[in-house]
Amino acid sequence: MGDFFTTFADALPQLLSGIRITLILTASGAVLALVLSFLFGLMSRSRSIMVRGTSRVIVEFFRGTSLVVQLFWFVYAMPIVTGFQLDDPVYAGIIALGLNYGAYGAEVVRGGLNAVPQAQWEATIALNMTPLQRLRLVIVPQAMAEMIPPFGNLLIQLLKASSLVVLVGIADLSFEAEKIRLTNATEATAAFSISLVLYFVLAWLLNTGMRAWEGHAKAKLGRPVPRKRLLQPVRADQGGAV
Amino acid sequence: MATDTTAAQVETDTQALGPVVNFDKVVKRYGELTVLDELDFSVKPGERVTLIGPSGSGKTTILRLLMTLEKVTDGVIWVEGEPLSHMRDSGGELVPANEAYLRQMRKRIGMVFQQFNLFPNMNVLRNITEAPVHVLGLSKDEAAVRARELLELVGLSDKENAHPSKLSGGQQQRVAIARALAMRPDILLLDEVTSALDPELVADVQNVLRDIASSTDITMLIVTHEMHFARDVSQRVLMFDKGKIIEEGTPERLFSEPREERTQKFLRAVLEGR
Ligand SMILES: Nc1ncnc2c1ncn2[C@@H]1O[C@H](COP(=O)(O)OP(=O)(O)OP(=O)(O)O)[C@@H](O)[C@H]1O
Ligand SMILES: [Mg+2]
């Protein structure tokens, strides 16, 4: 056991720097994904068939192609095709994660908006709100309560999928664990066990945060607040993009 | 169509004053189903009109067309002398209205729904102030003052911080009435506003509406099956069947001596059923 703790202490600075990158990828990827979710989700409800179609094509494209290949494309193909190279492959990671999970999130937004009763829309029209006011003041705040649980699932999948960036040489948590193994093969068990635990703790923290947000959103709508559970079951229909 | 002198009188006055609402050969179809068939009728300013008729006769459709929740298939609806469903293009021709034009016209009209439709993401006060603040541009304080006056009018001064889900149906409906009035509409549309309520809660809502009817000059179109209420608040009753007016008159006359056989049958059914 002594060995384990020595290894842990030695490996910690490296693993922490890996966690930092993982967190940056997850947080920035999630923010981008959230923005794109709303953009494509709202576009999919447009009256114009052009706007709807554009959103449909983009969403289907990013859901239907592999995240790894997208990642390779942004890092290796884009500079050749467009002559434009991202300063840091981390940006490519953020963009690929954001686009991919934004495409999944668009469906969540669409479903959430559809779940708000038609009568609520009619009440906003009767009060002469503009289309933007209808969404901002009434519809989205109500739809949010529906969207938070599936967004939570996507967020955790995004965290886990962020480890794929090792393939383009980004030094995230899983990269650092692998580096420890390469330096000293006997420490492989410790390094990977520790990083498994770290991923789990991160996922648990995100999940707890999302549950709290969900509870808050439901309470505000006067709905029953869901029971606290250690980990909520991941729904099969929210399958990952990996 | 059976008419009596009072209704005919109203008809003449309407011509003189200019109607606030005028349906001109309005047709509404859903696919094959013709709900309104070249419907003509008008309402003069300040008048309160009750719409009655069997289920499916098109009463709700008329109110929804006025609230611009539905589009006319043919014909034109006029509100305060201007087309509601249409606007004039540069050549003066009537073309279907766009959103900006609809927003100008909607200002004049408010609606209270059968199922209240309060916003569950806001407390009672914000339900009433939200549109005045964001749509009319009132300050939060002005809107709150206006909202509190209305809450007093509907007897719910102590509920301004309550969540809608904590109110009874009757209380929710009174908040919905206050919310509609806070926009100061010229025309108020009421679609069976008490029919989703438990019987003991109906009277409170009706009393509030009686107050509003007697203390304001707001034009009202009321759909209801409550004959006493219709008699108290309205000056004219329109009996609909299959999207047409088959009889109209004062509530006193029409309820006590209906002339059309279908009206007699309908009134009997309502009296027995409720
Ligand atoms: N969106 C719609 N699509 C298809 N048919 C509709 C739609 N809305 C209403 N209808 C039909 O139009 C007819 C008139 O409906 P409407 O709701 O105006 O009747 P109503 O007089 O209000 O009846 P009730 O007393 O039951 O409320 C009905 O046959 C109804 O089924
Ligand atoms: Mg109806």
Brief synopsis:
The complex is a heterodimer of chains A (242) and B (274). Chain A is an all-alpha fold. In chain A, 76% of the residues lie in helices and 0% in strands.
- Mean pLDDT of chain A equals 88
Q: Which word captures the global form of chain B? A: globular
Number of helices of chain A: 8
Corresponding CATH architecture of chain A: Orthogonal Bundle
Give me the strand/helix succession of chain B.
Answer: HEEEHEEEEHEHHHEHEHEEHH
Strand residue content of chain B: 15-25%
Number of strands of chain B: 12
Distance between the termini of chain B: 27 Å
For the record, the CATH class of the largest domain in chain B is Alpha Beta
CATH superfamily of chain A: MetI-like
Q: What fold name goes in the CATH topology slot of the largest domain in chain B?
A: Rossmann fold
Instruction: Count structural domains of chain B.
Output: 2
Order of helices and strands of chain A: HHHHHHHH
Identify the CATH class of chain A: Mainly Alpha
CATH superfamily of the largest domain in chain B: P-loop containing nucleotide triphosphate hydrolases
Give the neighbour order of strands across the main sheet of chain B.
8-9-10-3-11-12
Kindly, what is the distance between the CA atoms of the first and last residues of chain A, rounded to a whole number of angstroms?
A: 36 Å
Count of discrete domains of chain A: 1
**Largest interface, C-beta closer than 8 angstroms, per-chain residues:** A-B, 20 and 28 residues
Quaternary organisation of the protein chains: heterodimer
Low-confidence sequence ranges of chain A: 236-242
